[in-house]
Amino acid sequence: MRRIGIVILAMGMAACSGSKPAEQAAPAPAAAPAAPAAKPLAAGWTATDGIKTPESVYYDAASGFIFTSQIDGAPDGRDGNGRIAKLNGDGTTVKADFVSGLNAPKGLRVCNGTLWTADLDEVIAVDVASGTVKGRTKIADAKFLNDVACAGDTAYVTDMMGNKIYAVANGAATVAAEGDLEFPNGLLVDGDRLIVGGWGSAPKADFSTDVPGHLYAYDLKTKKKTLITPKPTANIDGLESDGQGGYLVTDYNKGILLHVSATGDATMVRQLKVGAADIAFVPASKILLVPQMNENQIVAIDLSADLK
User: Which of 69, 183, 202, 209 is the 20 to 30 A CA-CA neighbour of 232?
Assistant: First the structure.
């Protein structure tokens, strides 16, 4: 009995003095679900959901999403209603207020992960992934900033009513072009040149002109203007490369789409609607995206049969 008691006592002491079982580590928090990929780009749709006075549309090939500036009011209004909407490639809305609190945003372009837009007298830089505004550059002498183009970390913006083109980099603006610019609107960067869509002679109150504008190239180094279309062509608003050395342009006041060849020949491609503004074109699929400002809609058109 004594021996059994000693064994039991020893076992009890060992149990009391033994180490506690190791605590299990808390499970790691679940990773946030990845953002849904964009639905593929397609033609044949019309988007109206959340679309109000759309001035510009841009297809971001890197993400597959479409961005469109919504004035939602007067083109010169300072009402805070302006925004940028984000769409899928099939025209469905991802986020109607991807960027909000703007006034009358117009041109759009993406470079190095930055979505640039022009808003009256400001050039605004937005993180294209999140919609966060990264910077605002106020241009004191600007009258009516319009289209935007970019190269690297520099944005170029037309001041249509001020008859100038500005360059914006590192939060500062400088005059990149001035003089006989034909009240510039549409804009592209081509190496050391800007491709510019002139509105024409001085715009009247209804934005009509006595003489329409040319499509031309402006050399940033020599400051020389070279006509692409030898004759006055249109009140040029939208301007995109066709991917083959030519260009697609819209005449805002007539509501037409024109193709300009590399040699400057302009031919009508489609009758759109008055107010066809700053277009996007994807050469690989020949899909054209058109903001119809007066109709509050974005349309996607297959131009495969029109551009051989």
Answer: 69
Look at the chain and report how many structural domains it folds into. Answer: 1
pTM: 0.89
- Euclidean distance between CA atoms 197 and 167, whole angstroms: 17
* Residue 256 belongs to a domain: no
User: What is the rounded CA–CA span in Å between residue 97 and residue 47?
Assistant: 15
Each of the 308 residues of the chain gets a pLDDT tens digit; together they read 444 443 333 444 444 444 445 556 666 666 656 678 989 999 999 999 999 999 999 999 999 999 999 999 999 999 999 999 999 999 999 999 999 999 999 999 999 999 999 999 999 999 999 999 999 999 999 999 999 999 999 999 999 999 999 999 999 999 999 999 999 999 999 999 999 999 999 999 999 999 999 999 999 999 999 999 999 999 999 999 999 999 999 999 999 999 999 999 999 999 999 999 999 999 999 999 999 999 999 999 999 999 97
292 in any annotated domain: no
Domain of 218? 39-233
Closest CA to 157 of 140, 171, 177: 177
- Determine the 3-state secondary structure of 117 from DSSP: strand
Would you say residue 306 lies in a domain? no
Domain contains 15: no
Q: Residue 141 is encoded by which pair of tokens?
A: 């002498």
| CATH value at residue 196 | 2.120.10.30
- The CA-atom distances, in angstroms, between 68 and each of 31, 37, 46, 234, 250 are 31, 18, 13, 23, 17
44, 277, 286, 290, 304 from 308: Cα distances, Å:
19, 24, 10, 20, 7
Angstrom distance (rounded) from CA 213 to CA 226: 13
